[in-house]
Specification:
The protein has 27 helices and 16 strands. 35% of the residues are buried. The chain starts with a helix and ends in a 7-residue tail after the last helix. The protein folds into 5 domains: 95 residues, DNA Primase, Chain A (Alpha-Beta Complex); 132 residues, Alpha-Beta Complex (DNA primase DNAg catalytic core, N-terminal domain), CATH 3.90.980; 119 residues, Dna Topoisomerase Vi A Subunit, Chain: A, domain 2; 59 residues, no CATH class; 146 residues, DNAb Helicase, Chain A (Orthogonal Bundle). It is 55% helix and 11% strand. Strand 7 and strand 8 form a beta hairpin. The protein is globular, with a radius of gyration of 29 Å. Bound molecules: zinc ion. The site of zinc ion has 8 residues, from loops.
Length: 586
């Protein structure tokens, strides 16, 4: 673990204006700086950076936090990676702490074994006699040396246990190799998992090797083998090539999503750098979220067969839920991106992209093909409505329904009638949309006034209990607030933000920090807001009690069970409290 003082030092010595200013075009605006927000599409800047507080906040999409959270969001890295990056800039060495860390220490042997293996295979491919065949093969497929070098391709030589023997000689742990499934037990000995295969290393966003895919050189089966899931590798959470393409995707806000390793390499070679590949799994929710960090628009380019089409629909659905714009690129039957670019060149591929249909249009075309069109159309629309019901953002959801209505020529009210809000939506929405209802607004206002003066903060804590807050995110904020007051940490300061690791909480905290309370005496406003919230909380409690009483009555008729008496008593108490509500302390 990195000691907290070290993290604080790194944060305090980094200037958020420099860090953000190095990637965004910041313009001075009053005491703050403004820029176009990198996290949502906008034409006028609502992304604000405060040099004073060393935090940022977007009034458009609600993202916010300190210098670490910015790097985490912008570069898509972990907290530790963000700390490491800034530390490196300042010339502070933190590796010393990281290697002592418990979790990283546990995983270190896995990473180093994978790193070792990747280098071993690469050397075999490029530097040895037994790699010659494989190099020839790759060249025939259009992969030149620089591409092999860029993507660190390798070759697992034929033979039984080349890797195993070499690694044993170099002192690598057999257990780790077994756990990574790079080596397997066999007839009292050990053998390599990959034999006579081209090796594609798989990387995390921060360029650590976490696994490999191995492809045969001939027609034998299986065509691809993948290393299995391990403590460091989870297939559904990684997109192949994204470590290299993320900066291009972010810049163009557009991603090309393909199915295979070879597809990716050939597109890369043809000059399409904003590309990533699913590789060996069906597209997952996690992958969709990962891509949504960088892209607003995704072109799904799958094989031109039925399996490819089904996979494309699945990917499209996941991406739709994340609110992205989706284009479906249809390749001629029997082609994949690799073969298509090879035969027709980059220009032809680009025009294929330009003529790609929006996802809904693509589906409506499918619905008009073949027999039983009505049944097919109905199935497709139901499928779409179900998918759209999972879309998190309400505005996006309505826009999608409107589009479906236009494209399939169905009145929007009919679509709404068949629309059952998704289960997931409710939970997710709780934090986003409803930030803006009146209770939430007053809670935010309250905490923002509270952070102006210590006596205000104490007044809040004396009068408002964590239980008075309904939403978990506000409760979390309350606990942070409470702890800061107790520890004498200045509210809204960089130190305060340094304690917040939860990105959602960081968004809320930044929002609160940037609130400008309306003019007038702050103390009166504080008391009014507190009273308003306190009343709300008490009333809410009374409503809940009333509901419980009604429920008991409907089960057994009005009676005098212990629970009823207890509730009735508590109800009266709250009613009295509400009647003479005043504030404690000063
Ligand atoms: Zn924004």
């Amino acid at each position: 673990m990195i000691p907290e003082e070290k993290i604080n030092e790194i944060r305090d010595r980094s200037d958020i204006v420099d860090v953000i200013g190095s990637v965004l075009d910041l313009k001075k605006s009053g005491m703050n700086f403004k820029a176009l927000c990198p996290f949502h599409d906008e034409k006028t800047p609502s992304f604000v950076v405060s040099p004073d507080k060393q935090i940022y906040h977007c009034f458009g999409c609600g993202k916010g936090g300190n210098v670490f959270s910015f790097l985490m969001d912008y570069e898509g890295v972990s907290f530790i990676e963000a700390v490491r990056k800034l530390a490196a800039k300042l010339g502070i060495d933190i590796d010393l702490y990281l290697n002592k860390g418990k979790s990283s220490k546990r995983l270190d042997p896995f990473y180093s074994a994978l790193n070792y293996t990747g280098k071993y295979y690469k050397r075999i491919l490029l530097k040895t006699e037994s790699g010659k065949n494989a190099v020839e093969y790759l060249k025939r497929r259009g992969i030149d040396n620089s591409l092999m070098e860029d993507f660190n391709l390798g070759f697992a030589p034929p033979g039984w246990d080349n890797l195993y023997k070499r690694a044993a000689k170099d002192g690598l742990s057999k257990d780790i190799l077994l756990k990574l499934k790079l080596v397997m037990r066999s007839k009292g000995g050990y053998r390599d998992y990959f034999r006579n295969r081209i090796i594609y290393p798989i990387y995390t966003l921060t360029n650590r090797t976490v696994g490999f895919a191995g492809r045969v050189l001939d027609k034998s089966e299986p065509k691809y083998l993948n290393t299995s899931e391990s403590p460091v590798y989870s297939k559904g959470k990684i997109l192949y090539g994204l470590n290299k393409s993320k900066k291009f995707i972010r810049k163009s806000k557009t991603a090309l999503l393909v199915e295979g390793y070879m597809d990716l390499l050939m597109l890369w070679k043809a000059g399409f750098r904003n590309v990533c590949a699913v590789c060996g799994t069906s597209f997952t929710k996690e992958q969709a979220r990962l891509l949504a960090r960088y892209a607003k628009r995704v072109y799904i380019i799958n094989d031109g067969d039925r399996a490819g089409m089904l996979a494309a629909v699945r990917s499209a659905d996941q991406l739709l839920i994340e609110g992205l714009t989706i284009k479906i690129v249809v390749l001629p039957q029997g082609e994949d991106p690799d073969s298509y670019v090879n035969k027709n060149g980059a220009g032809a591929f680009r025009s294929l992209l330009n003529s790609a249909d929006d996802y809904f249009v693509y589906l409506s075309k499918i619905s008009r093909k073949g027999k039983e069109q009505r049944a097919r159309k109905s199935r497709i629309i139901k499928h779409l409505i179900d998918t759209v019901s999972h879309v998190r953002d309400r505005v996006d959801r309505n826009l999608y329904l409107q589009e479906i209505s236009d494209i399939f020529d169905i009145p929007i009210d009919d679509l709404r009638a068949g629309f059952k809000p998704g289960k997931r939506r409710k939970k997710k929405r709780e934090t986003k949309d409803s930030f803006d209802d009146k209770v939430a607004q007053n809670q935010k206002l309250l905490f923002s006034i509270g952070s102006k003066r210590e006596c205000f903060a104490k007044r809040i804590l004396d009068n408002l209990l964590e239980d008075d807050l309904k939403r978990e995110i506000f409760r979390k904020y309350y606990r942070c607030f409470q702890k800061a007051v107790k520890d004498g940490v200045e509210l809204n300061s960089a130190e305060f933000f340094g304690k917040i690791k939860d990105p959602e909480l960081s968004d809320l905290a930044a929002q609160i920090a940037f609130i400008q309370p309306p003019p007038g005496p702050a103390e009166k406003l504080l008391d009014d807001t507190l009273l308003w919230l306190k009343r709300r909380a008490l009333r809410r409690e009374m409503v809940m009690m009333k509901e419980r009483l009604d429920e008991l009555h409907s089960i057994s008729g009005a009676g005098n069970s212990a629970e009823e008496i207890e509730i009735a008593e508590a109800y009266r108490k709250i009613a009295r409290e509400l009647g003479k509500l005043g504030l404690q302390g000063g």
